[in-house]
Design brief:
Elements lengths: L31 H4 L1 H8 L8 H14 L1 E2 L9 E2 L3 H11 L4 E6 L4 H13 L3 E6 L29 H10 L4 E5 L5 H8 L4 E5 L10 H5 L10
Helix pairs in contact: 3-4, 6-7
């Protein structure tokens, strides 16, 4: 492994034996825990009460722990206890958020309606924005007809910047993304003022479960390797 570029994804050691987990742990030459102590220190300076990161991170860590059952039996024997949407609701409560923003894809409009009802039933105010909001033609950003989904007539572009602006104006405390396209989600993150989490990502082929391709990498999706 190269020593100048961290690549934790290719660490050869067992998770329980790694330096990032235990003080006397094992590590490859490229290990950032070993080699980037100055950057580690700099990152810790950002966890402070002035910017709110300390409490946010603390509540996230506590929420992580509550997502398991059987914790008194040790790390190797814990089991998952909560769904993603339950954890979002609980985390929002931990942070005393009152208004949730939801940016969603037109293709997941039914799911968005159900999610909004769930959030509302748990006492949150919800402001939501669909991807096609604004009805701006794709030609506005230089997309030609033959580059569209339907090549016969003009289509409305996804507008994640506007989605973010609307949720910003709606003063959402916490944003939830539901099925935005690759790249569109990136622009939303760039322009959103409130912290943002993801309930579901877009995967048209696999029913919005992109890890299915990874789980079958040695069989049905072996061509990806």
């Amino acid at each position: 492994m190269q020593t100048d570029t961290p690549n934790c994804a290719q660490c050869p050691f067992k998770a329980s034996d790694r330096l990032c987990r235990i003080e006397e742990g094992r590590f490859p030459e490229s290990c950032p825990t070993m080699n980037m102590t100055d950057l580690i220190k700099k990152s810790l300076e950002e966890y402070n009460d002035t910017n709110g990161n300390c409490n946010f991170a603390r509540q996230a860590a506590i929420q992580e722990a509550t997502g398991y059952q059987g914790r008194d039996l040790g790390y190797e024997r814990v089991r998952a206890a909560k769904t993603r949407i339950e954890e979002i609701i609980e985390f929002a409560r931990r942070m005393n958020y009152q208004k949730l923003g939801m940016a969603f894809c037109l293709g997941l409009r039914k799911e968005a309606k159900a999610v909004e009802q769930i959030f509302s039933s748990h006492g949150f105010e919800v402001v939501s924005a669909i991807c096609k909001i604004g009805r701006v033609p794709k030609q506005t950003i230089g997309v030609s007809l033959d580059e569209q989904i339907d090549t016969r007539r003009p289509e409305t572009m996804c507008n994640p910047i506007l989605q973010a602006m609307i949720l910003n104006q709606g003063e959402a405390d916490f944003n939830i993304l539901l099925g935005l396209c690759v790249g569109h989600d990136s622009l939303f993150f760039k322009y959103a003022e409130a912290p943002t989490t993801v309930l579901a990502v877009k995967d048209r082929l696999l029913g919005h479960n992109p890890l299915a391709a990874i789980y079958t990498l040695d069989s049905y999706y072996r061509t990806l390797k």
